[in-house]
TrEMBL record:
Pfam families: adh_short_C2. InterPro entries: NAD(P)-bd_dom_sf (IPR036291), SDR (IPR050259), SDR_fam (IPR002347). This is Dehydrogenase. CDD domains: SDR_c. It comes from Candidatus Methylumidiphilus alinenensis. Belongs to the short-chain dehydrogenases/reductases (SDR) family.
Length: 242
């Protein structure tokens, strides 16, 4: 049976790269976005050209009922789910001393609740298929340290790391493998030469991570990695840590 894959946040550059990388071998890919329907609609012909069926969906995943509707839609269209890739996680840059409770809650909802909401509703189908869940944190997430300008984002991503390990342990006996990718600084969009140089100076490798490198790691994880690779936080960062 061909693989059925759901990518949340497929409208992001990393999500797009993952879709293109996984679009082979007769896979079917459900592409989720929140606002940017154009980004995932434009992706569809590229997937079709690679022999991949796709389906586009727009949901605000901070709401559990919308996460449920999205999973229902994927099952309605593809009939099963083998791989869930929780890419959603917009960076939130905000000084902790100026942040309001509403801003805090919004950042945590976007970066932590979205992942829980989707996984909660997807679990039964992934247990049926003995599938994969791939979450997204960041390189260095396991370090306890101060992040005064991005505390909510980092606290939420630390939560993702804990959820990843917890789901990994809970679902491994049911044949579901849960891991997280921890990107470093990723070169996205129209980065100027000056910006690229500034990023590169912070990275031991000497250049930012390319979205295709993240995508290739996801592909390896869900196709070739050893069956015992479960509950891992996999850095793809050129040795940079946040
Ligand atoms: N880029 C980096 O350097 C970097 C570094 C470390 C970790 N990461 C992690 O890697 C992942 C991808 O990063 P990225 O920079 O490519 O992401 P991004 O460009 O910030 O994209 C965020 C995604 O979240 C979606 N989204 C926003 N609000 C949402 C909501 N309420 N409900 C559902 N979806 C919502 C957006 O959809 P719409 O655009 O359609 O609204 C978009 O697809 C994230 O988890 C990020 O934290 C990235």
């Amino acid at each position: 049976m061909a693989q059925s894959i759901l990518i949340t946040g497929a409208s992001s550059e990393i999500g797009r790269g993952i879709a293109l990388e996984l679009a082979s071998g007769g896979a079917s890919i459900a592409l989720h976005c929140n606002q940017n329907l154009q980004a995932i609609t434009e992706l569809q012909p590229l997937l079709t050209a690679r022999g991949c069926a796709s389906h586009v969906m727009r949901y605000d995943l901070t709401h559990p009922d919308q996460a449920q509707s999205m999973i229902d839609e994927v099952i309605g269209v593809f009939g099963h789910l083998d791989v869930l890739i929780n890419v959603v996680g917009p960076f939130h840059y905000h000084d902790i001393t100026e942040m309001t409770p509403d801003e805090w809650q919004e950042a945590i909802a976007l970066n932590l609740h979205t992942c829980f909401n989707v996984t909660y509703h997807a679990q039964p189908y992934l247990c049926e298929s003995r599938g994969h869940i791939v979450n997204f944190a960041f390189a260095g997430v396991e370090n306890i340290k101060a992040w005064p300008l991005s505390a909510a984002y980092c606290a939420a991503k630390a939560g993702i790391a804990i959820l990843t390990k917890t789901w990994a342990a809970a679902l491994a006996p049911k044949g579901v493998r849960v891991n997280a990718i921890c990107p470093g600084l990723v070169e996205e969009g129209a980065v100027t030469e000056a910006e690229r140089k500034r990023m590169a100076e912070q990275i031991p490798l000497g250049r930012p991570v390319r979205p295709q490198e993240i995508a290739a790691t996801v592909k390896w994880l869900v196709t070739e990695s050893p069956a015992s690779m479960i509950g891992s936080l996999i850095a793809v960062s050129g040795a940079w840590e946040y």
